From TrEMBL, chain A:
Extent of Basic and acidic residues compositional bias: 79-90
SUI1 domain ranges (all copies): 181-253
One MF annotation (Gene Ontology) recorded for this entry: translation initiation factor activity
Region listing for Disordered, in residue ranges: 1-98, 153-175
Lineage, opening ranks: Eukaryota, Sar, Alveolata, Ciliophora, Intramacronucleata
Protein name: SUI1 domain-containing protein
GO biological process, alphabetically ordered: formation of translation preinitiation complex; translation reinitiation
Native source species: Halteria grandinella
Basic residues bias: start-end ranges: 44-60
A Pfam family: DENR_N
Alphabetical list of InterPro entries matching this protein: DENR/SUI1_TIF (IPR050318), DENR_N (IPR048517), SUI1 (IPR001950), SUI1_dom_sf (IPR036877)
Low complexity: compositionally biased ranges: 12-22
Domain of life assignment: Eukaryota
UniProtKB/TrEMBL annotation, chain B:
Keyword terms, alphabetized: Cytoplasm
Protein name stated in the entry: PUA domain-containing protein
One GO term describing the cellular component: cytoplasm
Cytoplasm keyword on record: yes
Domain (PUA) ranges: 94-172
Pfam family, one: PUA
NCBIfam families: unchar_dom_2
């Protein structure tokens, strides 16, 4: 409230001061002509300034008092002025140091694909994930780019199955987190084979103990791998145990109620890049 | 130009003080409007390293300022900022606007052809040959690429065929991904 009034007063004060300076200027000149400022003159000038200052102050008070009734209107006006100023600053690109905070511009980048959201749709075939992200994080941009705002539920529903589909695709080879127990057979140089059992932890099997049991049962090395780079949590068994695994199931795994139809055998022949990537993803899970 | 991924492990070399000085002068010369902000982009006491990225069949010199690639120098010795810098200071170079149909081609690394600029969706500024320009698109705010004009604007209108702007960098290319800020929102 008062700030607004003071701001309006300042120009008035300046206007009052300016003539004072103008007056002071010639007198100084005269004094210089006369041979230097005398003390009296200096005092006079000082007094003059004081008076003018007082006048200005007084004026301020009076004005502020008189404006107290009008203040709402005046403050509004000043605010409007400020707004105008800002807009002007925005329009005038790259000039006065006052605008410095304007640059560098902070451009929003889509987190899904890394480009400004307006280019998401060109980056790949489907941009639903990007859309969902933009909607969640920058709703105002979403409206700008994708036109009229869609109902939120629809967008979410669209996005969710998409993500699920993607996950399924990714995990097609590695265990699909839920309930499959998979046994991978991988060749390890010549006729040596290594079997990897993945997914037992879903049934509450203590993998460490199970590894030991397996080692005894199959008479071979069996090790618990807490974070295999390809499969994540798993048990690695030296040798081909696929055929004998069923015996083990009957003997040991009935305790944990592992359903037979959930156990799948797969053979891994060559490591592909895609597979490795999938394995990484699963490791994160 | 930067198709495919670029190996992150760049072979960095330190750079002489005089060279830094020259470069700064060159940048101001090519982009006069950036002068006020150069101190922000390239602080005087910044650690400057240079490296080379192999592109197609030749090398592009890149300058790392505070461990961030901010400028590059192509084989014609033209200093070009990266897209990240352009997005932050879009006024630094003239803008050429393509129509909508051109966007997907340019995002996959194609040069800008004349018809894309002369069609109703395109907008051009009056330029000479061999100028660094920002390539924007119809209805978009941010630039989608940086290029060098191969023809002057007059020529583009007259000829209306072939490559008009040679693309240097586009969104989501190798260099864009390499310069991805560590904290992406």
């Amino acid at each position: 409230m008062y700030g607004g009034a003071a701001q309006e007063d300042e120009p008035a004060q300046q206007q009052e001061e300016q003539p004072a300076k103008q007056v002071a200027g010639p007198s100084k000149m005269l004094a210089a002509f006369a041979g230097g400022d005398s003390d009296e003159e200096r005092k006079k000038k000082a007094k003059k300034r004081e008076r003018q200052g007082k006048k200005a102050k007084g004026g301020k008070k009076q004005q502020s008092e008189s404006e107290e009734e009008e203040q709402p209107a005046s403050t509004q006006a000043t605010e409007a002025d400020k707004g105008d100023d800002k807009e002007e600053q925005k329009v005038g690109a790259g000039a006065a140091p006052v605008e410095k905070p304007e640059f560098p511009l902070q451009v929003v980048y889509c987190r899904v694909c890394g480009v400004p959201p307006e280019y998401c749709m060109f980056d790949k075939k489907d941009s639903t994930e990007c859309k969902a992200w933009v909607l969640a994080n920058h709703p105002e941009l979403h409206d700008q780019i994708y036109g009229a705002p869609k109902p939120v539920e629809e967008g979410a529903a669209e996005a969710a199955p998409q993500q699920q589909q993607k996950k399924k695709k990714k995990v097609s080879l590695a265990p699909s987190g839920d309930s499959d127990v998979k046994i991978y057979k991988a060749k390890r140089g010549g006729k040596k084979v290594i079997s990897t059992v993945v997914g037992l932890h879903n049934y509450g099997v203590p993998l460490k103990d199970m590894a030991k049991i397996m080692g005894k049962k199959f008479a071979c090395g069996a090790a618990y791998q807490p974070d295999d780079e390809k499969y994540g949590e798993c048990i690695q068994i030296q040798g081909d145990v696929a055929e004998r695994f069923v015996d083990l199931l009957e003997a040991e795994l009935t305790k944990y109620k592992v359903p037979f139809d959930r156990i799948k055998f797969e053979e891994v022949k060559k490591k592909k890049k895609a597979e490795a990537a999938d394995g990484d993803d699963d490791g994160d899970e | 130009m930067f198709k495919g991924t670029i190996d992150e492990n760049l072979n960095k070399q330190s750079i002489k003080g005089s060279e830094v000085k020259k470069l700064r002068e060159k940048i101001i010369e090519t982009y006069p409007s950036i002068e006020k902000y150069l101190e922000e982009i390239w602080p005087k006491d910044a650690k400057v390293l240079k490296s080379k990225i192999k592109v197609e069949d030749y090398l592009v010199q890149v300058y790392l300022i505070d461990d961030e690639i901010r400028f590059m120098e192509n084989r014609d010795k033209i200093v070009i900022p990266t897209m990240r810098i352009l997005h932050q200071y879009p006024f630094m170079m003239p803008h050429m606007q393509c129509d909508k149909g051109a966007i997907k081609h340019i995002l996959s690394g194609s040069d800008v052809m004349c018809p894309g600029l002369t069609s109703p969706g395109g907008k051009m500024e009056n330029l000479e040959r061999y100028q660094v320009v920002a390539i924007t698109a119809e209805g978009k705010v941010n630039a989608m690429g940086i290029g060098i004009t191969v023809m002057s604007t007059e020529e583009i209108i007259k000829k209306n065929k072939d490559v008009a702007i040679e693309l240097i960098q586009n969104l989501n290319d190798g260099l864009w991904k390499l310069t991805r800020p560590a904290a992406t929102l």
